[in-house]
From TrEMBL:
Lineage: Eukaryota, Fungi, Dikarya, Ascomycota, Pezizomycotina
Compartments, record wording: Cell membrane
Main location as per UniProt: membrane
Organism: Melanomma pulvis-pyrius CBS 109.77
Keywords for the protein's UniProt record, in alphabetical order: Cell membrane, Membrane, Transmembrane, Transmembrane helix, Transport
Any one cellular-component term (Gene Ontology): plasma membrane
Similarity remark: Belongs to the tellurite-resistance/dicarboxylate transporter (TDT) family.
Protein name listed in UniProt: Sulfite efflux pump SSU1
Protein's membrane topology: Multi-pass membrane protein
InterPro entries in alphabetical order: SLAC1/Mae1/Ssu1/TehA (IPR004695), Sulfite_efflux_TDT (IPR051629), Voltage-dep_anion_channel_sf (IPR038665)
GO molecular function term, any single one: sulfite transmembrane transporter activity
Keyword Cell membrane: yes
Transmembrane region(s): 27-48, 68-92, 104-123, 135-158, 164-191, 203-225, 245-269, 281-301, 307-327
Amino acid sequence: MGTGIVSILLHTLSTIYTSYHASLNSLSIIFFVFNVFLFTLIFMISVLRYTLYPATWNLMIQHPVQSLFLGTLPMGFATIINMFALVCVPKWGGASVQVVWGMWWIDAAVSVACCFGLPWQMMTTHKNSHEKMTAAWLLPIVAPIVAAASGAIVANVLPDPQHALWTIVTSYVLWGIGVPLAMVVLVIYFHKLAVYKLPPQEVIVSVFLPLGPLGQGGFGIMQLGSMAMKTFPKTETLHPMAGEILYVLGFGVAIIMWGFGLVWLFFAISSISRSKFPFNMGWWGFTFPIGVFTTSTLTMGEELPSAFFRILGTAFAISVTALWLVVAAGTAKNVLYGNLIEAPCLREIEKARQMKLETEAQFGA
C-alpha cells in the first residue's frame, strides 16, 4: 500500500508539473513495478503459509488484531489497478482495458467481503475491549472506499459508456458502504483516546490511520463526480444535469472531509511528537494514510484550481516519498537481522504453551 501510493503520487505530480514529466513518470513506473513485485511476493508467501500450515488460518482469523489486516490485501491490489489504468492501458490498449476492469471487480468483491465479514467476526468471535481498541479497526472498512476511488479511475479508461456507468454506480455504493461505517468507528476511536489516552508506543503510528478514509473518501467522491458528469449525459442517466450536480456535491463533500482530516492530522502529529517509539512494521502506517490525504489535496488543487492546494499537496507528496525511503531502509535493515516479521497469533499460542509447561513443571516439582 505504501509503495503503491508513492507511485500514484509521482504519476500525479508528473501530470501537474509537465516540465518534469519524463523524470517523475519514470520514477512512478519504477515504484509501480517494485510494488507489483512486492505484492506478488507477499501474496505468494501468504498462500504458501496457509496451504502448508492450514491451522494458521484459523488462528489468524480468530485474532482480534491480526485478522483486521486482511483488509490491506484489496487496498494494496487497488494501487496496482490504479497504476495499470493510468499507465498500462493508454500504452497497451486492446485487451488491457478488459483486464483492468476484471481486476477491479475482483478487488471490489474482496473489499466488500472484508468490510462485511471482519466486523461481523469482531461482533461474534473476538474478545474486544474499549481501552485496547486501535485505529486498525478501520482497515477492513477502508477497503471498499479505496475500491470506490479505483472504480472512478477504471471507469475513465473504459470505452463503453454503459460499462463505465455500471462501474460508477457500483463505486458510489462502495463509497456508501465504507465512509459512513468509518465515521462510526472514528467516533468510537475519539472517545477511546479521550477516555483512555494515547495508544501504547508500539502502535502509536496507528493514529495516522483515520486519514485513510477521509483522504481516500474525499478523493474518491471527487473522481466519481467528475466521471458522473462525463458519463451520465452519454447514457441518458437520470436528469441531464445529474452528472453536474454530483460533481459539485462531490467537491463539497470532499473539502469537508479534507477539513476533518486536518483535525486527525493534528492529533497524529501531536501524538508522535511527544512519543519515543521503536521501529516496527507499524511504521508503514505513516505512508498510505498521508498519501491518500495527499491525493485528495492535489485533486482539489486541480479542480478549483488553487495554487495553495497544489503547493501543499506537493509538499505532502515529497514528505510521503521521504517517509517511504526512511521506512523502507528501516524495514530492509530489520528484515536482514530477522527481528521484524512475526505472527501475533502464533506468538500468543507460544506464550500459552510456555505457561502450560511452567505450570506442569511447578506441579510436578
